Amino acid sequence: MIVFYQSSNNNDMESQKYTIKDIANLAGVSKGTVDRVLHKRGKVSQKSLAAVNKVLDAIDFQPNILARSLKNSKVYRICALLPNPEKDIYWQSCVEGVNQAASEFKSFGIHIEIRYFNIESIDSFEKENMSILNQSPDAVLLAPLFQMQSIQIIEMYHANNIIVSIFNNQIDSKFEINYVGQALYKSGRVAARLMESIIHEKKKLVIIHIDEALNNANHMKNKEKGFRSYFDELTQDAYRITTLNVKNSELEDALAKYLNDDTDVSGIFVSTSKTYLVANALQKTNSNVKIVGYDLIEENVKHLKNKSIDYLIHQNPKQQTYLSIVYLAENFLFDKNIPRQKLLPIDIINSENVDSYV
Amino acid sequence: MIVFYQSSNNNDMESQKYTIKDIANLAGVSKGTVDRVLHKRGKVSQKSLAAVNKVLDAIDFQPNILARSLKNSKVYRICALLPNPEKDIYWQSCVEGVNQAASEFKSFGIHIEIRYFNIESIDSFEKENMSILNQSPDAVLLAPLFQMQSIQIIEMYHANNIIVSIFNNQIDSKFEINYVGQALYKSGRVAARLMESIIHEKKKLVIIHIDEALNNANHMKNKEKGFRSYFDELTQDAYRITTLNVKNSELEDALAKYLNDDTDVSGIFVSTSKTYLVANALQKTNSNVKIVGYDLIEENVKHLKNKSIDYLIHQNPKQQTYLSIVYLAENFLFDKNIPRQKLLPIDIINSENVDSYV
DNA sequence: TTGAAAGCGCTAACAC
DNA sequence: GTGTTAGCGCTTTCAA
Fold first, then answer.
1. Cβ contacts of B160 on chain A, cutoff 8 Å
2. pLDDT tier at B16 (50, 70, 90 boundaries)?
3. Which of A14, A83, A177, B241 might form a disulfide with A91, Cβ 3.0–4.6 angstroms?
4. Strand runs (DSSP E) across chain A, as ranges?
């Protein structure tokens, strides 16, 4: 075993750390003046300014963010308003993302509260928002499922100096500081490419939207547009694509009937996390139709593993909320910039890589 | 526009922030004693202990990590030893991952230096390591391409109290604090599932390892095992799978010859980032063989987009090094735990989702 | 066994 | 315009 001696001096230029005090000494002024120069606050004489800037140019000064942050010791309150996962299990991951961020930032003085609204009730959405507004937290994270109401409420938050971050879906608002989500049109194209690669002979496809009324119609339409655009661009092959809008309750009958009428269907693209419902329905028809759908909820994963669903597209709900909170927290604590928009990768999931995502 | 009045008192139990000073006051002891109890250091009388613990039980005390960290203000030095990207562009992303982390943690007093070794030279690997050892940084991030030498050098770092983190590939060492990489066997299975879904008639497949001598043979063998295991488990269909080991320079001829002898081949799985070489070679044969390979380097992405490569598996090299550095930095700064192993998701990439990853 | 006090680097209030 | 100083919350040293 060779053991090297420590070199006695590691203070090379690079790892030298300068403080405001150092700069003040070097420039022959006081810490206060250095601070004034650094932050352009207060009056500074030409002479002092020049002296400090000269030092600043010569060294690579990195203000100690921890010290700055410590000084500003306050508790920041962030409120996350999420769809209640009891109504749709998809949202459970969003809760987990928030919770993970919450536990990571707890000891930094970031306090996070989760609230729920009922996805079937605009009223509950508005009520919760009003209640949050009344608490006046420092920031709010929102799933803006109801477009019109969301725009209104975000404006109110803004008027009250409450920062708003949104995830899951874009809306036409100018006042949110950040959006984290996925490119929906693109994800439709991804689904199309997957479908193309597994379909071979009969080129009839079906797009199924489930419970459109309850969900965000735009959301689904964008996915459909992407899906169709991909096939439209293919020059050699002509696919026939039909769109079906069904209610959850009518799905099984509607699908059975449709497939009975048209036995040439070879692939189904489901635009929501309810993909498993289609897989369930198909199991009874004993057909060999391929399915591409969305989201890693338990029921979907089960079907994916036994290959009754071929591919799922992962919308990364947990990462969406986790990231949103991290952006807010790091902005409060360390003054980090928040990107206006963060589009997460469009993850393709099959039976073999699914475990690596959960 | 409705504007709500701020509620006058937001100090609910939850958002109350206690400091050791508060605890000291509540327990009727000094800050020093509270610190001794919290960290079990120094002697404390039964009485004081009980008093402090009583307070601690009653409140939810979150020590302010920023303050702790500030106190311990020192410059941490991390050295990353990476394969030189000039020899193999794959490694470029690793450099970027380190650089990103470096810029994020610069103002926290984390100083990061990147060094390169030549992937074709064990000697350069050893020399660089010795030089790093001599600098005695606080931590080292290593791509342990040469198994035996890596084990030795990691032991040396360990003996010198230098923390070592590794990425890209596992080795049989007990002294590294953390490994970030991908499950190789699993990724072979993912490739197999992809291949199965796009291959339909002729069930002959080829596995190609390129430049095995230069690369980590184990690495490739694990992927192959995973790939084969998937097809072995299929009961209904019999696939014939052949393995080809070729040198970069001989690839084109070897492949042309092979495909000429056996015209039934319908899919090729390439175990390295040199997948584009196979695509290049195939373009000249005008065949319709499907290709599944690895990594989002530029040449591969080009082929992916024009569909001469069907799928790529993304090993996330940037994320590997980025995460490794983040783990180390957050451990130094905030005493965060470092997981022993972090296996990144096995990302499936096709022509449509590739842009969302870069 | 304990309390008092200094100090990490930065900010902000205050006095001159 | 500028320097001084107190203080953020924690750790650590020193004196009692």
1. 3-4
2. low
3. A83
4. 76-83, 110-117, 139-142, 163-167, 178-181, 204-210, 240-246, 265-270, 290-294, 311-314, 341-343, 347-349
